[in-house]
Amino acid sequence: MTPTLVREHLAHAGSAPPRVNPRKRARDWSEIQERMLLPLHETVHERLEVGPGTRLLGLGCGSGLALLLAAAKGAAVTGVDSRAEHLALARDRLRPDGPLDARLVQADSPADAADAEAPPYTLVTAYETIGGLGDGDGLDDTLAAALPLASRGAAVVLAGWGPPERCATSTVLRVAAKLAEPLRGARTWRPARRDDLEEVARRAGLKPDGSGRVACPFGYADADSAVRGLVSTGLFDTAIAATDRKQVGKELTESLHPYRRPDGTVWMPNVFRYLIARVP
Questions:
Q1: Fewer CB within 10 Å: N-end or C-end of the chain?
Q2: Do 35 and 220 meet the contact criterion of CB atoms below 8 Å apart?
Q3: Residue 158 DSSP SS3
Q4: Average pLDDT in the 6-16 region?
């Protein structure tokens, strides 16, 4: 749910554009939702021993939390994202002109992150939620453009939702699918499948080299924060286009009732899965 496990998507052609405020959306993602993925980023960095000598390319880097964690370990990081509002927040965090070795590129394709004078990347991360929207097809072109920038044997990390029965948020996300029904054919949430990550790796010509699961509970101060955080993922864009922001908020608030604690906080246990693959 990045750097963005959960990236924003617009509804496909034929539907009205989501009625959202990009600046507010980016702020809600950065302040509320992005931290839910901290256990995932920390687990991946520890397993791959990210540190000095690591050259990391973050695809769909969002507001930069995963890049910041890697840079703090001594890695040289480059983030690519097409969303100006998210990158502005990433720049505030990383301060590329400061002591951290960080570079941020606003672009639709990671090919724009190429630097003929720099060594190839040793790690590529794609923290888009495969199994959240569609089948990960949107990553195919992105990976095709990114892999020539990586060294042979470089690690590529793909991530997505775990089994629906292990993800309490799956119940809430079904609201997105229900409300989006009037826009048939538009991209909306679907449950993850067991081999989603492997299928993306196979299409990209990557060699799987390990996988794992990480507990990433979603915890919010109150229902309003939960709604804002969940909407910031982009998984409700099609539902907003099919209805409106107020209706989506109402339905979401009702679906959160089973996860509200007596003190008003919201807690939803989730498991995310990651796959490590290698550039041949």
A1: C
A2: no
A3: strand
A4: 38
pTM, whole model, 2 decimals?
Answer: 0.89
Helix (H, G, I), strand (E, B) or coil at 146: helix
Amino acid at 173: L
- Dihedral sign for Cα 208, 57, 163, 217, please: positive
Q: What is the pLDDT of residues 137-194, one digit of tens each?
A: 578 999 999 999 999 999 999 999 999 999 999 999 998 888 888 766 556 667 778 8
> What contacts 280, CB < 8 A, 6 or more positions away?
152, 205, 206, 207
Going by C-alpha positions, the residue among 95, 259, 247, 100 that lies closest to residue 167 is 259
C-alpha span between 191 and 170 (Å, rounded): 7
Query: What is Dmax (Cα atoms) for the chain?
Result: 57
Read off the amino acid at residue 233: T
**Are the C-beta atoms of 196 and 132 separated by less than 8 Å?**
no
Q: Give pLDDT, residue 3.
A: 37
Pick from 254, 189, 196: which is nearest to 226 by CA? Answer: 254
Distances from the Cα of 102 to the Cα of 25, 90, 113, 126, angstroms: 24, 10, 12, 17
User: In this predicted model, what pLDDT tens digit does every residue of 42-95 receive, in sequence order?
Assistant: 999 999 999 999 999 999 999 999 999 999 999 999 999 999 999 999 999 998
Q: What is the side-by-side strand order in the sheet with 76-81?
A: 102-106, 76-81, 55-59, 121-130, 150-161, 271-278, 207-215
